[in-house]
Amino acid sequence: MPINIPKELPARDILERENIFLMEDERANTQDIRPLKILILNLMPEKEKAERQLLRLLSNSPLQVNVEFMHTASYESKNVSKSHLSQFYKTFSEVHHQRYDGMIITGAPVETLPFEEVSYWNELTSIMKWSKSNVTSTLHICWGAQAALYYHYGIDKFALPDKLSGVFPHFTQDAQPVKLTRGLDDTFLAPHSRYTGVSVEAIEKNEHLTLLAESNQAGPLLIMSNDEKNIMITGHIEYEATTLAEEYQRDVTRGINPNLPINYFPNNNPNNKPLHRWRSQAYLLFSNWLNYYVYQETPFEWSTTNDTN
Questions:
Q1: What is the reported pLDDT for 309?
Q2: Contacts of 142 (CB under 8 A, 6+ apart)
Q3: So what's the pLDDT on residue 22?
Q4: Which residue in 71, 111, 123, 142 is the catalytic one?
Q5: Mean pLDDT for each consecutive 10-residue tract of the chain (309 residues)?
Q6: Whole-number pLDDT of residue 238
Q7: Rounded to an integer, what distance in angstroms lies between the CA atom of residue 174 and that of residue 121?
Q8: What is the total count of domains within the chain?
Q9: Is 48 known to be catalytic?
């Protein structure tokens, strides 16, 4: 089934070349079905790239998905045009009266700051509080996952000695199989790109959380709340094959002298094109989230009440 996005969204041309089934508003409105409403709070600096990555993964499902994008009103992004934001994005004040079947909160390049020092932290906490009663299930990615663990469950992040960058093997926890990891291999690869981490012990001690996948090198990757409303992915499983290479070259240009991403470039040579070795796991994880935690759990008709306090 298709994913419904605005006709003029720049990501459309790339996704159509990949034979992803897209639908415009006019045609979607004629369908006699109840599509899923997904809200994406895009905190990434390169918003158009993040749009493309997430839309690609949301498209691999038999469900029709209507996507809306949201940006923070309390911080003005410097890496995207105002016209792009005004045309394709909404602010919280424009959506807080609505209900959504699912929401995605992306990562953000602010992880070295204490949460309370992030310029839009108060706005983000209002959104996360609102999501408790206005969103069926929320997927949090990288810094978004750390923010959710801190706000909802009181688990803080800690600084790493060096930036964690690379593609790492992870293993699923087999003590209690869950629908989110259904079909995932016992071990699978996923990218990470961050300066901070979260404690496995803190997650395991929290009675509201279940650790679903982790890495001996990169730590916890996949965490779910026991009420299944919040899912946290500490890595960037949505990344394209070349994203870590682009970040590495950016840091080289800035004079940061970064380490090579681990287990990423063939033969550890940055001139070699990296392979996309986590694509199938990313598609499966997003499909499981949409099917089991959004579609099968959301009411056909939301009530008209909401909670914005």
A1: 46
A2: 106, 107, 108, 111, 193, 194, 233, 234, 235, 236
A3: 67
A4: 142
A5: 73 76 55 80 95 92 88 89 92 96 97 96 98 97 98 98 97 80 94 97 97 96 96 98 97 94 97 97 95 84 51
A6: 97
A7: 35
A8: 1
A9: no
Residue 196 within a domain = yes
Element (H, E) at 132: helix 121-134
Range of the domain at 189: 3-240+276-295
For the question of residue 238 being annotated catalytic, the response is yes
Q: CA-CA distance, 60 to 55, in Å (whole number)?
A: 9
**188 found inside a domain:** yes
**b/e per residue, 250-273, with b = 16+ CB within 10 A?**
eeeeeeeebeebbebbeeeeeeee
**Neighbour-count burial of 248, counting CB atoms closer than 10 A to its CB (0-12 exposed, 13-18 middle, 19+ buried):** buried
User: What is the structure's pLDDT at 304?
Assistant: 45
Whether 249 is covered by a domain: the verdict is: no
> Is 12 one of the annotated binding-site residues?
no
Is 248 a member of any domain? no
Please tell me the predicted confidence (pLDDT) of residue 9: 84
Q: Is there a binding annotation on residue 99?
A: no
Residue 302 burial (CB count, 10 A): 15
| pLDDT for residue 223 | 97
Q: Which CATH number does the domain housing residue 61 bear?
A: 3.40.50.880
Binding site annotation covers 279?
no
Question: Residue 224: CA atoms inside 13 Å, Cβ hemisphere, count?
Answer: 18
